[in-house]
Automatic annotation (TrEMBL):
Membrane topology: Multi-pass membrane protein
Subcellular location per the Swiss-Prot or TrEMBL entry: Cell membrane
Transmembrane annotation, as ranges: 79-100, 112-130, 136-155, 167-189, 209-228, 255-281, 296-316, 323-344
Annotated GO CC locations: plasma membrane
Main location: membrane
Protein name per its UniProtKB record: Putative ABC transporter permease protein
Length: 351
């Protein structure tokens, strides 16, 4: 009985620590968002920002106050899209790594980002696409980003591919799409090449409220489904045979979770461009602190990704103001050394 109480107390202590970490990250998101909204070419006080947001929520938006216009039109869409994009990429990365049981799995290494880049390149250079003029780049990026997912699904369905084969297939498609995109860059005119390079670097400056709403709806539907299936992720980490013996169909769960993660990634990338690193490293960093239980790891990876992308966008707008650096550059420059430091200082193995 005493040992049972000790185990129960240890479990609840660990659970409280995880909930405290999530709460701390949510507070960090609010603080970072407030700082991001207050800094720019026109400085607005931190308290004034939250006061105006409250006023807009209660009394409505008016364009008579230029500060409200700056917040609602220029800064708030970037912050909200940054939170949604970072959350989506973090969740998708955790799902890919859990499904494939591979620490290298991410939207980038599976070829999803490279395929989206090729679709955007075709739209920007040759004006060829699957949607109308206003949604030419977005439509192309979304359609092409689903191609690697469909190829991997087909390999898994008809060739009974192992997780190792699936990630190797993704890496192969990453290089194929990257090579074609490089050819298009070589042939592109100067203006089209510049637009293409900026899109490939990733940016939150194109965020609009309609796009934000679409992203929020996709995440609002997909994230609960992933969390609901997170126990299957835990079982699949034991191997397919063990998962089957515990009552889970790993093949079906793998396809469902891969489809959801691919949809999240495609939705985010088509609106923001190729923002790398977050989907790969966010789950690793969170796994170091909260463990490998996907019931907690998936949402925490998303929250961490949101906080990290908002902070990166703040740095990209202010480090050499008024010039705005593409946020994808900042995520790699800041996140890469941070990740290496954490790996070198942590002796415990998480895979």
């Amino acid at each position: 009985m005493k040992q049972k109480n000790v185990l129960r107390n240890a479990y609840f202590k660990n659970y409280r620590q995880k909930m405290m970490m999530i709460t701390a990250m949510l507070i960090l998101i609010c603080l970072t968002a407030g700082i991001s909204l207050s800094h720019g070419s026109m400085e607005i006080g931190f308290r004034a920002v939250w006061s105006m947001l409250w006023q807009i929520c209660t009394e409505g938006y008016t364009d008579e106050d230029p500060r409200q216009t700056i917040i609602m039109v220029l800064r708030l869409p970037r912050v909200v899209m940054g939170a949604l994009a970072g959350f989506g990429l973090g969740v998708a990365g955790a799902v890919f790594q859990g499904v494939l049981r591979n620490p290298l799995a991410s939207p980038t290494t599976l070829g999803v980002s490279a395929a989206a880049g090729l679709g955007a390149a075709l739209a920007l250079i040759f004006n060829i696409g699957f949607a109308g003029k206003n949604f030419l780049v977005v439509g192309n990026a979304f359609v092409f980003s689903m191609i690697p997912a469909m190829v991997i699904f087909s390999i898994a369905r008809f060739r009974q591919a192992t997780p190792e084969m699936m990630i190797l297939s993704g890496i192969g498609m990453f290089y194929i799409f990257g090579a074609v995109t490089s050819i298009l860059e070589f042939l592109a005119a100067q203006d089209a090449l510049k637009a293409m390079v900026v899109w490939l670097m990733g940016s939150l400056g194109r965020a609009k409220w309609g796009e934000i709403m679409i992203t929020a709806i996709v995440l609002g539907i997909s994230t609960p489904l992933v969390i609901w299936r997170s126990w299957d992720l835990n079982l699949m980490s034991l191997g397919d045979d063990a998962a089957k013996s515990l009552g889970t169909n790993p093949d079906r769960s793998r396809l469902i979770l891969m489809a959801i993660a691919s949809l999240i990634t495609a939705t985010v990338i088509c609106f923001t461009g190729m923002i790398g690193f977050i989907g790969l490293v966010s789950p690793h960093i969170c796994r170091m602190f909260i463990g490998a239980d996907n019931r907690m790891l998936v949402p925490v990876s998303g929250v961490f990704g949101a906080a990290f992308l908002i902070a990166s966008d703040l740095v990209s707008r202010t480090i050499i103001s008024p010039v705005i650096i593409p946020v994808g550059i900042i995520t790699s420059c800041v996140g890469g050394p941070l990740f290496l430091y954490l790996i070198m200082t942590k002796k415990k193995q998480y895979w």
